[in-house]
DNA sequence: CGAAATGATTGACG
DNA sequence: CGTCAATCATTTCG
C-alpha cells in the first residue's frame, strides 16, 4: 500500500530502495541535524498540502506515460524476476510449518464429539452413540437425558458451523479482495503470482488462527456439556425393582458361578431395560458389587437368596415337572441355590464343601454339570414337594463355589454360563455337616 | 437428618 | 481385560 507513491511520484527517485521520497529528502538536504530534518518534513508536508486534483491528474498522466513507455514491459519483467528471487529466498526458510498439533487435536476432538463430523441426520458420532444407547435400553429417562444432551450438542454444533461458515466466507471475501487489489496493482508494480499466493497464505493462516479460537471454545463448550450430562452417568441411578429382580434371579441361580458372560450381560441389560447410560458397565458393576457384598456378608443375603431360590424353583417346576429339563433354555433360571442356612462360619464350610465335592476340579469340570442337573432336580423335587425346611433349608444351598479365601473359584468354564446347562447350581447336598 | 443401601469409580492384580 | 476390594457419592429409608 505504501508503495503506491513510489510509482506515482516516480520522479522522486526510481532507484531508491526504501522510501524514495523521504530518504531522498533526508539525505539530500539536511540529514545532519534535527533542524534540517524538521525542515524536510515541513517541505514534505508542504508538498502534500499542495497536492490538488490537478496534481493528481498530472501524476496519473505521468503514470500512464510511464506505463506506455516502450521499455516498460522489459523493465517490469526484470523487476519481477528480481523480486521473485528475493521472495523465494525469503520464504524458503519459513515455509511449510508443520500442521499445528494443537489444531489437529482440536479437530480430532471435534470430530470425535460429532461436532465437526458429517452434518445431517443425527449422523454424528455422539448422536449415533446416543441412539445406540437408547435403542438398547429403551429407558425412559435415559432417552430424555440423551435428547437433552443431544439438543445441547447440536446447538453447539450449529453455532460452530455457522461461525465457521462465517469465517470461511469472510476469509474468501477478504482473499478475493486482496487478490483483486494485488492484481490491480500488478499492472503498476511487480507482483508475482507467487507473491499473491503468499499473501493468500498469510491471510488463510490468520483466519485459521481465528478458526482455531473458535474450535477451542467449541471444545471447551463440549467438555462442559459432557461433564454436565454424560458424566452424569456418574450420578447414581438405582435400578428399578424389576431390574433388580431379574439381576438377582440370575445371580442366585448362578450362585456358584455368578460371572455372566458378555452376551449374558447384554441379555440381562436388555431384559432390565437399564436406564442409565453406559449399559454395558452397569450390569458388570452390579454383579461385581453383588459378588463382593454377598461374599462379605452372606448371612445378610440369606433371606434374599431363599426368596429367589423359591422363585426359580417354582419357575422350574412350571417348566418341567417331571424333570426332563429343569433348566429352561435361554432363561437362566435353573435351579436356585439359596438357603436359610446360616452361613456365618462359611469359611470352614466352604473348605469342606470343596474337599467333599470336588476333590479336584478337573473332576468337577465334567462332573459339575451333571451334578448340577441332579441337584437341580433334587432341589426342584424337594421344593415342589412341599418345601420342608428341614430338608431343604438346612442342608441345601451353601455358597458352594466359594472357597476358603472367599473366591468363587469354581470349576465350570464361564463359557457355559449363558447356556442353560450352566449352573452347577448346587453341589450342596453332599455337605452334611 | 443420619444411617443404610447401592451404583459407580479407582487401583491392584493376574 | 475382567475381577476384587476399597472407597466415593448419591439415593432411599427410618
TrEMBL record:
Its main location: nucleus. Residues 1-34, 319-340, 401-433 are annotated as: Disordered. It comes from the Eukaryota. GO terms for biological process: cell differentiation. The keyword Plastid does not apply. Residues 410-421 have a biased composition (Polar residues). It is found in: Nucleus. Residues 36-231 form the PBC domain. InterPro entries: HD (IPR001356), Homeodomain-like_sf (IPR009057), KN_HD (IPR008422), PBX_PBC_dom (IPR005542), TALE_homeobox (IPR050224). GO terms for molecular function: DNA-binding transcription factor activity; sequence-specific DNA binding. Pfam families: Homeobox_KN (PF05920), PBC (PF03792). GO terms for cellular component: nucleus; transcription regulator complex. Residues 232-298 bind DNA. Keywords: Activator, Developmental protein, Differentiation, DNA-binding, Homeobox, Nucleus, Transcription, Transcription regulation. Residues 230-297 form the Homeobox domain. The keyword Repeat does not apply. Belongs to the TALE/PBX homeobox family. This is Pre-B-cell leukemia transcription factor 1. It comes from Oncorhynchus tshawytscha.
Amino acid at each position: 500500500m505504501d508503495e503506491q507513491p513510489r510509482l506515482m511520484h516516480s520522479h522522486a527517485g526510481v532507484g531508491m530502495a526504501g522510501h524514495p521520497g523521504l530518504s531522498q529528502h533526508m539525505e539530500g538536504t539536511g540529514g545532519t541535524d534535527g533542524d534540517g530534518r524538521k525542515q524536510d518534513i515541513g517541505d514534505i508536508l508542504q508538498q502534500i498540502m499542495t497536492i490538488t486534483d490537478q496534481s493528481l491528474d498530472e501524476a496519473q498522466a505521468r503514470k500512464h506515460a510511464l506505463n506506455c513507455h516502450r521499455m516498460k514491459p522489459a523493465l517490469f519483467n526484470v523487476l519481477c524476476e528480481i523480486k521473485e528471487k528475493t521472495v523465494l529466498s525469503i520464504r524458503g526458510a519459513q515455509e511449510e510449518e508443520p500442521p499445528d498439533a494443537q489444531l489437529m487435536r482440536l479437530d480430532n476432538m471435534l470430530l470425535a464429539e460429532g461436532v465437526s463430523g458429517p452434518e445431517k441426520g443425527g449422523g454424528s458420532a455422539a448422536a449415533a452413540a446416543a441412539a445406540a444407547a437408547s435403542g438398547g435400553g429403551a429407558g425412559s429417562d435415559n432417552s430424555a437425558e440423551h435428547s437433552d444432551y443431544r439438543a445441547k450438542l447440536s446447538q453447539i454444533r450449529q453455532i460452530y458451523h455457522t461461525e465457521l461458515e462465517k469465517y470461511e466466507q469472510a476469509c474468501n471475501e477478504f482473499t478475493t479482495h486482496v487478490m483483486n487489489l494485488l492484481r490491480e496493482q500488478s499492472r503498476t508494480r511487480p507482483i508475482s503470482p507467487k507473491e499473491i499466493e503468499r499473501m493468500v497464505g498469510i491471510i488463510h493462516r490468520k483466519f485459521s488462527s481465528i478458526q482455531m479460537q473458535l474450535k477451542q471454545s467449541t471444545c471447551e463448550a463440549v467438555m462442559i456439556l459432557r461433564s454436565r450430562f454424560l458424566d452424569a452417568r456418574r450420578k447414581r441411578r438405582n435400578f428399578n425393582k424389576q431390574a433388580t429382580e431379574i439381576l438377582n434371579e440370575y445371580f442366585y441361580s448362578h450362585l456358584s458361578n455368578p460371572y455372566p458372560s458378555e452376551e449374558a450381560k447384554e441379555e440381562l441389560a436388555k431384559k432390565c431395560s437399564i436406564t442409565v447410560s453406559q449399559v454395558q458397565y452397569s450390569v458388570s458393576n452390579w454383579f461385581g458389587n453383588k459378588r463382593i457384598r454377598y461374599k462379605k456378608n452372606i448371612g445378610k443375603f440369606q433371606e434374599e437368596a431363599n426368596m429367589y431360590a423359591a422363585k426359580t424353583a417354582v419357575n422350574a417346576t412350571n417348566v418341567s415337572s417331571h424333570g426332563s429339563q429343569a433348566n429352561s433354555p435361554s432363561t437362566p433360571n435353573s435351579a436356585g441355590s439359596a438357603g436359610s442356612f446360616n452361613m456365618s462360619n462359611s469359611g470352614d464350610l466352604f473348605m469342606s464343601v470343596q474337599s467333599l465335592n470336588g476333590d479336584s476340579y478337573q473332576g468337577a469340570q465334567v462332573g459339575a454339570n451333571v451334578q448340577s442337573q441332579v441337584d437341580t432336580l433334587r432341589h426342584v423335587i424337594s421344593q415342589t414337594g412341599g418345601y420342608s425346611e428341614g430338608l431343604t433349608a438346612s442342608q441345601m444351598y451353601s455358597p458352594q463355589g466359594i472357597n476358603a479365601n472367599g473366591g468363587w473359584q469354581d470349576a465350570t468354564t464361564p463359557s457355559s454360563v449363558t447356556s442353560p446347562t450352566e449352573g452347577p447350581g448346587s453341589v450342596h447336598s453332599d455337605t452334611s455337616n
